[in-house]
Write a structure and sequence with these properties.
Elements: H1 2-13, E1 20-23, E2 33-37, E3 40-45, H2 62-69, E4 80-85, H3 108-120, E5 136-140, H4 145-156, E6 159-165, E7 169-176, E8 181-189, E9 202-203, H5 205-223, E10 230-237, E11 243-245, E12 255-256, H6 264-274, H7 283-293, H8 295-300, E13 303-305, H9 307-316, E14 321-322, H10 323-326, E15 332-333, E16 338-339, H11 341-347, H12 351-354, E17 358-359, E18 364-367, H13 370-376, E19 383-385, E20 388-389, H14 390-397, E21 405-410, E22 414-417, E23 432-435, E24 441-447, H15 451-461, H16 467-474, E25 485-488, E26 503-506, H17 516-540, E27 548-552, H18 559-569, E28 573-574, H19 581-595, H20 599-605, H21 619-640, H22 651-655
Parallel strand pairs: 3-4, 6-10, 10-20, 14-17, 21-27, 27-28
Antiparallel strand pairs: 1-2, 2-3, 4-5, 6-7, 7-8, 9-12, 11-13, 15-16, 18-19, 21-22, 22-24, 23-24, 25-26
Helix pairs in contact: 6-7, 14-19, 15-17, 16-17, 17-18, 18-21, 19-20
């Protein structure tokens, strides 16, 4: 009854509205329930914590000490916090301020109540035998030495901020430079601009900046940190996107993204000139398209950069490029690791002069300007590392800085890549010989269709079930999905070079569509087979087979999908604890910058944590997938023809004459 009156009183102070409960996830506070609305918090505190209750006073002594514990920095002098001691709950004894909930679990007012719960344990005990019923203590929010001390200790922590500017949203990670661990995460989702062309994929670069601002704000809230705790920033960005700026640094037109295939004809044309099978995703083909289709916009363009370059430019006011991301433009001499001026001239005589100068790895790009800091919520003057493309940063975040481990990234696009000390040229361009973010190379296969395929299978055939429910149903589906194959080319494909391809279901029999798990399983298998082709091509180019696969990205959360990959690749599969490896890689690069170490050395000394849950290949399933993969390849070639391959006779020499 006493507790009920306490809650009713709290409701009256909160304007009569219903108080929303938030239960702590910490085991030692699991039975501490906090009701919060505006400035009022009602906490049910376990009776077995043996708390003492005393009246509040401004006098010195234990009572004053408890009063200080109730301070909330956001409270005004006229506001109160209400705490109710419950008789019925049970929990281990409180342990003062060490019992604070994990970051992001509870609001600031809920944390205030949790501090108070721990503070009660320091109060004088009444004599044994005198039982206390639930009592209500109302305290004015005055200066709290304990809370201030906790805030002060928290403010001493410094963080490296990693930001990943992606196609579907921006992710931010705060990496504790002392604890060498992720302390906070934030995100902001967005989409593509509406476009009349089905082959177009564009975004306004301002969307990325807003995404960074919101994601950083959310990460700080998750870590219960303030912006001044951020010591450095690293930026990861979607590769290949064409950002055009005029003489004043203003955006000329929306950015054309990696998945935009309107430049397929220009890619084929340039591929013939360069002697390799260029796909429409490469930035050079988009610039050629701009020159041909929007000459007025090309005339206005004075700088061509990539998404992560643009974000760094906004942060620092300085424009550069770095070799990892720049190797995705399509005009780099991979042996020399420099932009090839002759190739640029093949795109347009002005193209070379529009590209910023290249920076080496492990250096500072610039410092956050006051204006950028004010907009993004960052401290002015902190260093910004060079950053790189999302795949290069994902390699860092997965600890892939030496040969032996390959990364399988399951995102909007699917990628397979790994560190290599030397470039691996592939005339078919199935494997891209990108530079990495440490001074080495990153041979990579990219599929344009990955998680979107599984997502559409869920929407079309899932019957409202969640991914987790469908994955559970898919466990009973045999390898090969009973002959049902999902060719995943919903937006065309770059590996193989089929920009005209479409998503296709084959092998349907009566009843195939009646069990949602069948099509869902076939979608995961189809996206996996598209990546498996990359491993086979790497073997043909002489690369050693991997000792293990590290699965990252949003799809890595699916245990069923990880097992399919292990069986199809016939290789052991592990997965990092932090799925957002691109954002983590950006944070690690920034951390290396301020520590004075090279990025590779820093990642080797501070490898990311991996989950204990490992997927081992099943020999019988591996054999079934090998057979099904051959059918998958045969059906794709039958439907969409042989891969588009460039005829390089003579044209390459003419360009370099």
């Amino acid at each position: 009854m006493t507790e009920r009156r306490a809650i009713d009183g709290a409701k009256r102070r909160a304007g009569g509205a219903t108080l929303a409960p938030a239960r702590s996830r910490e085991s030692h506070l699991r039975n501490l329930i906090v009701f919060v609305r505006h400035d009022v918090a009602v906490a049910r505190i376990p009776q077995r914590a043996r708390v003492g209750v005393c009246a509040w006073s401004d006098r010195s002594g234990p009572r004053e000490r408890i009063t200080r514990h109730l301070q909330c920095p956001t409270a005004t002098r006229s506001r109160h916090h209400v705490l109710s001691v419950s008789e019925s709950a049970s929990a281990p004894p409180a342990a003062r301020s060490s019992l604070l909930p994990a970051p992001g679990v509870m609001s600031s007012l809920a944390r205030t109540a949790a501090i108070a719960a721990a503070a009660f344990d320091t109060a004088p005990r009444r004599r044994r035998g005198r039982r206390h019923r639930g009592r209500v203590v109302v305290a004015r929010a005055k200066a709290s030495a304990a809370s201030n001390a906790a805030d002060k200790a928290k403010s001493k922590a410094t963080y490296a901020l990693g930001v990943d500017v992606g196609t579907q949203g921006t992710k931010a990670i705060l990496y504790d430079l002392d604890a060498r661990a992720v302390a906070g995460r934030g995100a902001k989702s967005y989409g593509l601009l509406p476009n009349a062309s089905a082959n177009a994929a564009e975004q306004d670069p301002a969307t990325w900046l807003d995404g960074v601002r919101v994601a950083v704000k959310n990460a700080l809230a998750d870590a219960r940190a303030t912006p001044d705790a951020i010591a450095c920033v690293g930026v990861s960005g979607q590769q290949h996107g064409m950002v055009c700026l005029d003489a004043e640094g203003a955006v000329v037109r929306p950015a054309k993204l990696w998945c935009d295939t309107e430049s397929a004809a220009e890619a084929t044309e340039l591929g013939k000139m360069f002697g390799w099978n260029m796909q429409a995703g490469f930035t050079a083909s988009k610039v050629r398209w701009l020159k041909n289709v929007e000459p007025q916009n090309w005339e206005r363009t004075k700088t061509v950069c990539l998404p992560h370059d643009y974000v760094n430019y906004f942060m620092t006011g300085e424009m550069h490029m770095e070799r990892g991301d720049a190797s995705g433009i399509g005009v780099m001499d991979m042996e020399a690791r420099e932009i090839d001026e002759a190739k640029c001239d093949a795109v347009d005589a002005r193209f070379f002069e529009t590209l910023p100068k290249l920076l080496p790895p492990d250096v500072e790009w610039g410092k956050v300007t006051p204006d950028a800091g004010a907009f993004l919520g960052l401290p002015a003057g902190i260093p910004v590392s060079v950053g790189s493309g999302d795949n290069m940063m994902s390699a860092l975040g997965a600890g892939c800085v030496n040969e032996g481990r390959l990364v399988v990234s399951l995102g909007t696009s699917g990628t397979l890549f790994g560190y290599n000390a030397e470039t691996v040229p592939d005339p078919t361009a199935a494997i891209q010989p990108f530079c990495d973010a440490t001074g080495g190379y990153l041979p990579l296969l990219c599929s344009m269709n990955c998680t979107r395929v599984v997502g559409e299978a869920r929407q079309a055939f899932g019957g409202g079930r969640s991914h987790e429910e469908l994955a559970e149903e898919a466990k009973s589906v045999p390898p090969g999905s009973g002959g049902v194959r999902f060719l995943p080319y919903l937006v065309g494909e770059r590996s193989p070079n089929w920009p005209h391809a479409m998503g296709t279901l084959t092998g349907l029999r009566p009843g195939s569509l009646c069990t949602p798990g069948v099509v869902y399983n076939a979608a995961m298998e189809g996206a996996t087979y598209a990546l498996l082709g990359g491993l086979k091509r790497m073997s043909e180019l002489g690369l050693s087979p991997p000792t293990e696969l590290a699965v990252v990205g949003g799809g890595s959360k699916s245990k069923r999908w990880r097992q399919i990959i292990a069986d199809a690749f016939d290789t052991r599969v592990t997965w990092p604890v932090e799925p957002e490896t691109a954002a983590l890689g950006a944070a690690l690069q920034a951390a290396a910058l301020v520590s004075g170490a090279s990025t590779r050395a820093f990642v080797e000394e501070n490898p990311p944590a991996y989950a204990d849950d490992v997927s081992e290949p099943n020999p019988d399933a591996a054999a079934a997938h090998a057979e099904n993969y051959e059918e998958f390849v045969r059906e794709g070639e039958a439907l969409f023809g042989p891969e588009i391959v460039c005829d390089v006779r003579g044209e390459y020499d003419e360009v370099y004459a």
